[in-house]
Amino acid sequence: MQTSSTLSYTSVKLLCTRHSSHQFRQAAELLSNSRVHKAKAGETLRSIAAGELELRRAITGERTTGEAELARLERNNPDLNPDAKIGGRNVIMYTSEDLSAVLSDARFKYVPQIGQYLKQLGITEAQIQNALRIQNEQPHGTQRQLLGQILVNEGHATQAQVDAAFSAQQLLKELLAGQISPILEKTN
Question: What is the pLDDT of residue 140?
Answer without folding.
Answer: 84
